[in-house]
Specification:
2 copies of one chain form a homodimer.
Chain A (H helix, E strand, L loop, with lengths): L11 E2 L9 E3 L23 H4 L5 H8 L4 E3 L2 H7 L7 E3 L1 H7 L4 E6 L10 H12 L5 E6 L3 H12 L3 E7 H6 L1 H9 L3 E5 L5 H9 L7 H15 L2 E3 L6 H6 L1 H13 L7 E5 L4 H15 L6 E7 L4 H4 L1 E6 L8 E6 L21 H8 L4 E5 L1 H15 L5 H15 L9 E6 L7 H8 L7
Parallel strand pairs in A: 5-15, 6-7, 6-9, 7-8, 10-11, 10-15, 11-14
Antiparallel strand pairs in A: 1-4, 2-3, 4-5, 12-13
Helix pairs in contact in A: 3-5, 4-16, 5-6, 6-8, 9-10, 12-13, 16-17
Amino acid sequence: MTSIDAAPDLVKAQLPESELPRQWYNIVPDLPEPPAPHLHPGTREPLTVEDMLGIFPRGLAEQELSTERWIDIPEPVLDVYRIWRPSPLIRARRLEKEIGTSARLYYKYEGVSPIGSHKTNSSVPQAYFNSIEGVKRLTTETGAGQWGSALAFACAAFGMGCEVWQVAASYEGKPYRRMLMETFGATVHSSPSELTEAGRKMRADFPDTSGSLGMAVSEAIEAAVGYGDAKYSLGSVLNHVVMHQSVIGLEVLKQLTMFGEKQADVVYGCAGGGSNLAGLAFPLLAENLAGRTTTRFVATEPSACPSLTQGRFDYDHGDVAGLTPLLKMYTLGNDFVPDPIHAGGLRYHGMAPLLSHTVHLGLVEAAAVGQVEAFEAGVLFARTEGLVPAPESCHAIAGALADARARTSPEESASIVIGLSGHGQLDLPAYSAFLAGDLTAT
Amino acid sequence: MTSIDAAPDLVKAQLPESELPRQWYNIVPDLPEPPAPHLHPGTREPLTVEDMLGIFPRGLAEQELSTERWIDIPEPVLDVYRIWRPSPLIRARRLEKEIGTSARLYYKYEGVSPIGSHKTNSSVPQAYFNSIEGVKRLTTETGAGQWGSALAFACAAFGMGCEVWQVAASYEGKPYRRMLMETFGATVHSSPSELTEAGRKMRADFPDTSGSLGMAVSEAIEAAVGYGDAKYSLGSVLNHVVMHQSVIGLEVLKQLTMFGEKQADVVYGCAGGGSNLAGLAFPLLAENLAGRTTTRFVATEPSACPSLTQGRFDYDHGDVAGLTPLLKMYTLGNDFVPDPIHAGGLRYHGMAPLLSHTVHLGLVEAAAVGQVEAFEAGVLFARTEGLVPAPESCHAIAGALADARARTSPEESASIVIGLSGHGQLDLPAYSAFLAGDLTAT
């Protein structure tokens, strides 16, 4: 474990705009064993770029299969990133004092983005690479609305249309993110809708359905294929999404030195589809693999959807209907339906193949956190650090708190980095339910 | 008008933490004529520090009457400011391109604060100065909840209790900010409540009332006085609040030089109570008064509550019941009830005496903006710059857009700074109403 001497007063490491990363980092060439390839759902042969062109533009399909270590970030993407990036790395001094830890707690705060989460790190390049290939509009699915609003923002930035199928339960019950998507100019449909064959069939078979993410995926893909001028966009899981998120960790490496830290001793990040944690962790993991650091990485997932800690490591589909390629990943089975917890971004049956691979290799650890423990951590964080974390991020905070509370002596000191993937201002009803004692422990 | 050569690529001027202002700026000693004193509501004599000690701590009462140019910001306040300050000054290049202006548009973005607006610049020092004098809890009123959540956050930061009387209409109809206050640990009451004599009388006389800000003020003051261990806190209007907000403009002065600007040619800020605009403008106005710059300042207020453009400049009370000191200000009369527009933070009958004084002296201009024009500007801003502005901030954007659209040739170029006082993620229903065409023009 390291100690710290420099920068005793610094609270917030804020990189100048000139330090914004100019390349994304792809961990594939640095892994000790190559990850298993995606497979074509029909032939079960390794997926090719051409196989993907029906729903993705060539630029993104090539990134998905790339083995290049560094990929240039196009200037128009950097121009949009500059609105909020580099994001701050903040030392949680008030939280440290409150819990009496000898650890140094830092959080990388992605909530400064236009929509309040890390999702825009990938939505912006996805919209850009579609736009330069002449795609006029993007379709996608969204649950609570984080990804949908990120893509709506990105499409507005590049003058493209955006059509979002939002799970009916969220469309009705969580209207703020729908309003955010519409403010950015997107069209939002409650899913299942009457606009697609898949939606009409679902509505006929189950008139009372409140929808599902898997259903919304099917509608968004069907619509994109049918429109001709549209492509489909996915907000996590895939390799190119993980790579886009690497800007998080690349910035953290520079920011830790501003605090005088030689390394992060432990990194905690929440993992649903996996792109948030992988984006934070992989640039730091590269330092481990090069023998320069000894950082531990812990993926925190909800007890209600424990793909890493309870799932099997095997090929599975990314969607319920089985239309997507087969991905080698930790999965609970593509028919797994998690309990309706408030961290909607973590309710996914699988896990990014690249993150799954690093867990399988023992390079990244995993831990499950209950919902109540997560919100307890979130409320303590809000009352000390002032920022209300997204329910997803609360899982990472809970993991870090349990670690930090066990460190009280100078010898046990360590630098702990928390991936604070977003703020929770549009998730306040969940906090309200927690404060009223209305959450169960799962 | 100035031109710009330097920093052609910079989007976001982000000062390092070491450039955080260490002193607040008080414009009083630099004004060409001294402002009229506040008057005691009973004797109509100039208000003294002692007169204020019933509801304010001595530290803030002294600031209210101070004629010192610079007041040190205490270290514990700086420690909390550092969580989000310095805030960025961002060049709105995408918006410039969209409207085809030759002007250079900048916005000072206060939405990065924990609650998403500038209000924490004053709530933090207010909580601090109360805490060091042994005050155990603060009471305040809030309409939509911006100020209430800012004070709730600040009280949590200094381990104090916080009790907020929220206007019943907002308490019921806009629950997210109430939930935010509760997440920070505050107690929130719907006003009028059964907890105060004033509230009980109101409920008895008007059983169907949905409350008013003036009513909530009376309840918060009555409670603070009755508790003994509590004081009352106000979020705008008064001199000490205006001074706390000067960190905004002090940072802007440094950030303009990062863009190569010699001065801001025009500054637009929304004005309700006045502290947001005054905080941005006064440090720049000081440069004018010293003969170094020729900046124009425009206060944008809603057409529905036009205190600067339609009000009289006279002594008036700050509240409906007439319990507060008499303040020399532009006022529509303390019984004026504005239409229920969505920019709740601008629905105040008066205007900060210091800002009123500068308008009266011709140092600051004023313009009224209609609600529909404000939201049109806000949606255009969201779709180009990616940030959804608070409805209040939309008024400043609308003023700046009208100015910028009239500048198309290089000769008409100018640097225009917009005070973006906060984000609008908790105000999305207002955007939704606008997009649905449900807003009237007032």
